[in-house]
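Worked Example 4.2. Consider the chain below.
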Amino acid sequence: MRDFTSWKGLTRSNHISGVFGSKPQLVTDVMIRLLEHNYGKNLETYLSRFPVKYFEEDEDITWRLIGSSRKNVPLVEARDISGNVITSGMAGVNTEPFYLVFQEDYFADGEVIVGEKNEVYPLRILEDPKFEGTLTIYKVELMGAVLSGMPAEELQMGKRFSVEFAPVEKEGSRKVGDIRFAAPVSMRNEFSRIRIQHKMYGNMMNKKIACGIPMRDDKTGKVTVINTWMHHADYVLEQQFADYKNYALVYGTSNRTSSGEYKNYGKSGNILQTGAGIRELMSYANTYFYNDFSLKLLEDALFELSTGVIGFKNRTFMLETGERGAALFNKAVLDTVSGWQAFGYFNGNSGVNIIQKTNSELHSNALSAGFQFVEYRAPMGITLKVNVNPMYDDPVRNKILHPLGGFAESYRFDLYDIGNPEQPNIQLARIKGMEDIRGYQRGLRNPWTGENGGDMAYDEDSTVVHKFAALGAIVLDPNRTMSLIPAVLAG
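Applying the procedure from the previous section yields the following structure tokens:
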């Protein structure tokens, strides 16, 4: 009967009459709303799993992440005893010394270090390093059993070296070796400060609409029909301000440049600061882009995340994705296990009733067939489970299409290590006393509160409502999270 439309800003009486009708003849007193695709509440559900940490002031949020002191150090180059870069042949024949050049002072005098072929070419550091600008130069020799030398291809730029141990002689040994520490990585974020406002004329105070608008209580599920415009306006205000907050916490991006400056200014002329959301904070660690999805791709990424770090009993991972991603996961599992049919895993003896009888007008012996994989048990104790999150299928925010159909975001997979109540890994940050602030700039009548007369900010018969919030996100250790993203979404 009527095209759906929308408007922004001041609502006048003719909006109410034009859109909702002044004297409509309705089959029911409840307006049949074609609910637009609104995933805000699902975002709130997603965010509700994370605890809130309150701060006394709205300064930057900083924390430090201490990693392991054990690591590989990439080689810059190798030089012979005369200082020439080694590009071919064999280095260190008959234990002749040569030099290794690194970007940092990591190894100690007397330590045995190894490259990519660990037991084949062990090297011993002969003295404390020398420094050449930002470079650290170590004098080394091959351990005595390797007299034929070390091939130049094992000493090219980027080859990685690590510490083994520091051997000493049987008698009269002197000091060798040393300990090393991991410098903490400083992490920071800041609060995003958001506002919303809306002006309403005073005569809208008791304005009724000819058809009711159903309002659903998210906690109880109870639906209440209202016919007063201001109830609806207040509901929309809260709903859209909640969207502001949710998008800032999940998708927000920091506008602070690498030099620590801000190039954006607000209407006051002061700098405008926005903090990073959960997704941007996660992106500093395990982020992978893919073209062709496979279970091996997932397995390899999760092996990187868990090998040597997470015990075998704790390697169950929940992957958040969209409907398309869940379908892709199902197909990948099916492709992997299809070869198991010969072992009878898909017949009736397995207890999996893939084919069942059903009722249909089309045939007296109608059958239904099908299944969906939502979990896969990979090697080394890794169990993958898939959860469909509607925010990945939001057709309003997600705009880039995927070659396989649907929105590219629906093919994204995210793993969140939330942590535990004692030490949560992902937290929401708020400022005490500044969770949500609401205020009124009032004229003669305030339709938001029903107040008439009294102190006025201006003479017009209207009132502007204002809302403000300061909020932020914390991901203590991004290495405990992972994102697998379709290549079409790569920046």
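The chain is about 15% helix and 30% strand. Residues 1-68+182-340+369-491 form one domain. Compare this with Example 4.1 before moving on.
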